[in-house]
Design brief:
heterodimer, A: 280 residues, Rossmann fold, five-stranded parallel beta sheet, two-stranded antiparallel sheet, globular, B: 318 residues, alpha/beta, 2 domains, 14 helices, thiamine pyrophosphate (chain A)
Chain lengths: 280, 318
């Protein structure tokens, strides 16, 4: 098992994100199905959370003082599993069981089957409400722990997201930071064509949130936004992270068909070369 | 707890008993938090809200968000009670209950009021006749339908001690007290008023009272009738059910709910596999409700003691 090393060093975090992408692609190829595009687009964000920002103890997953991460876009499970494995929640060899019968690495995260998963997700639009509830509970306990919640941009078409956005604004939940992975694509096509979500920042502003707009594939910007969000008091923060779906591998980047497709063996070869994983 | 004895015998609405029990529970247990969706005056959670404003969250008219927020609170060790009308709680937010509460087996108590047609004048849109079916089908869910105020108070105390998701179905209208002073509620344990050798009536909620009235009438007619209060619909007390079925020729189920998927469904499913016997289901016959006075509606939809009597005598005369 790995021991957790955390650092704000951008070079270190970029290297972790590269390793995360490699493991995501390997596990997806072995599984033969799963969500490639949205796992890669958010890889820098989730890497920054687990390898830098969040206070957590992989050897003590239920540590009461831990910061919480809720993967509302549950289909990015391969990303969560990889980061959990690489930070030491479980052995990396388990990644090869993704989506297999009986594996704790279900197609979408199950908290009853895998250590480190706070709550089961997969049905879109429900995570932010859960994150609010955790944040309110922590506040009642005067805990300094924070809650992070990752949503997809297609996901914010769900009405419950805006119920939750209203709740967080109303109750001024400032120990919460939502992050929206704005990769502009959803399973049926461009969000712009399927169901327009723009203007996104104005919507969150209108619901009484403090809004950050960043390049979500730029590690420096991700880390800075996470630091700044922690300083916002009296209202919840949202980081609107513009990303590229399939980021890191040219053949997947911006391609809507890789929302729910796993790489073939040949595509994996190309991807590993691009990610600098020579001859493996 | 000391007030338990004196509360027995009171004809009150189960929602009123809930409001009182919850406020008392709040004093004893600081982990209790309460959520409501803009109906706290009607669900009676307002009493808790007034006593413990820091532990009460009005979520506005947004049931789906309420369920998720309750789930999140439970993940920090709180014991959330989330309340609204039964139709909105179980219908509007069914998928949130499935995905967030039941799949992760979160310790959330869903206590809904205004179930059944005795909601009255508000009519079909506000009368949950399917809620027990919707909750019973979910893995990990416990489903409880208390019969009177005295039982409701005990149910609220019991579910706070139980770890896991629970649905409790309460009503708007005042109901007759039926449970005896020495009654002690336990999750999954039915109360046998009496086991009959001809017929046994398995009832829940307000229909326990109707079943007891029907029993008096039928016994006078020489038919040996028993009554069981099956307040926990899931898990079903199969021991009590088997005892009733083995001792009689007819099982009647009586509920203020659709005859599909509720108590009648649960009893029929179990008996057809384990002790086949005729089961007649008294309940709402696959239709919507309507506006009116509760008593008039109970007559209109065939949910009175007389309806039970008629069903039994028809069967016995065959």
């Amino acid at each position: 098992m790995t021991t957790l090393t955390q650092s704000r060093d951008i070079g270190f975090l970029k290297e972790q994100a590269r390793l995360v992408r490699i493991e995501i692609l390997k596990m997806l190829t072995l599984a033969g199905s799963g969500h490639t595009g949205g796992s890669l687009s958010a890889a820098d964000i989730v890497t920054a959370l687990y390898f830098y920002k969040m206070r957590h103890k992989p050897e003590y997953p239920k540590w009461p003082e831990r910061d919480r991460f809720i993967l509302s876009k549950g289909h990015a499970a391969p990303l969560l599993y990889t980061v959990l494995a690489l930070t030491g929640y479980f052995d990396k060899s388990l990644l090869s069981t993704l989506r297999k019968t009986g594996s704790p690495l279900q197609g979408h995260p199950s908290s009853k089957m895998l250590q480190g998963v706070e709550v089961s997700t997969g049905s879109l639009g429900q995570g932010l409400s859960i994150a609010n509830g955790i944040a309110l509970g922590l506040r009642l306990d005067n805990s300094r722990a924070r809650v992070y919640c990752l949503l997809g941009d297609g996901e914010i078409q769900e009405g419950q997201v805006w119920e939750a956005a209203m709740t967080a604004g109303h109750y001024a939940i400032d120990n919460l930071c939502a992050i929206v992975d704005l990769n502009e694509l959803q399973i049926d096509g461009r969000c712009e064509d399927v169901m327009k979500i723009t203007p996104v920042p104005a919507k969150w502003n209108a619901f009484n949130w403090h809004v950050f707009e960043i390049d979500g594939n730029n590690m420096e910007e991700v880390v800075t936004a996470l630091d700044e969000a922690e300083k916002i008091k009296g209202k919840p923060s949202v980081i609107l992270a513009k990303t590229v779906k399939g980021k890191g591998v040219s053949i997947f980047e911006g391609k809507v068909e890789y929302h729910g497709l796993a790489p073939t063996k040949e595509e994996l070869e190309i991807a590993l070369k691009e990610l600098g994983e020579h001859g493996k | 707890m000391a007030s338990r004895e004196e509360k027995c015998g009171q004809d009150i609405a189960t929602r009123d008993a809930y409001g009182a029990a919850l406020a008392e529970l709040g004093k004893r247990n600081s982990r209790i938090v309460v959520l409501d969706a803009d109906l706290s005056g009607s669900t009676k959670t307002a009493k808790f809200a007034k006593a413990f404003p820091d532990r009460f969250f009005n979520m506005g008219i947004s049931e789906q968000d309420m369920i998720g927020t309750a789930g999140g609170l439970s993940l920090t060790g709180k014991i959330p009670f989330a309340s609204t009308f039964a139709i909105f709680e179980t219908g509007r937010a069914w998928e949130q209950i499935r995905q967030t509460i039941c799949y992760s087996r979160l310790n959330v108590k869903l206590v809904a009021t205004h179930a059944g047609i005795t909601v009255g004048e508000d009519g079909a849109s506000h009368q949950a006749l399917e809620d027990v079916a919707l909750m019973r089908v979910l893995p990990n869910m416990v489903v409880i339908v208390p019969s009177d105020g005295f039982e409701t108070r005990q149910v609220i105390d019991a579910i706070a001690e139980y770890e896991g998701p629970v649905y409790v179905r309460l009503g708007r209208a005042k109901v007759p007290a039926v449970m005896p002073p020495d009654y002690k509620f336990e999750i999954g344990k039915a109360y046998k008023f009496r086991i009959g050798s001809d017929v046994n009536i398995i009832a829940s909620g307000i229909m326990v009272s109707a079943a007891l009235q029907a029993k008096e009438i039928l016994i006078k007619e020489g038919i040996d009738v028993g009554v069981i209060n099956m307040s926990t619909i899931k898990p079903l007390d199969t021991q009590a059910l088997l005892e009733a079925a083995k001792n009689s020729n007819l099982i009647i189920t009586a509920e203020e709910h659709s005859i599909i998927g509720g108590l009648g469904g649960a009893v029929s499913e179990f008996l057809s596999e384990n002790h086949p016997i005729t089961v007649k289901r008294i309940g709402i016959k696959d239709t919507f409700g309507g506006s009116g006075k509760p008593d008039e509606l109970l007559k209109l939809y065939g949910l009175t003691a007389e309806d039970i009597v008629k069903t039994v005598t028809e069967f016995m005369s065959k």
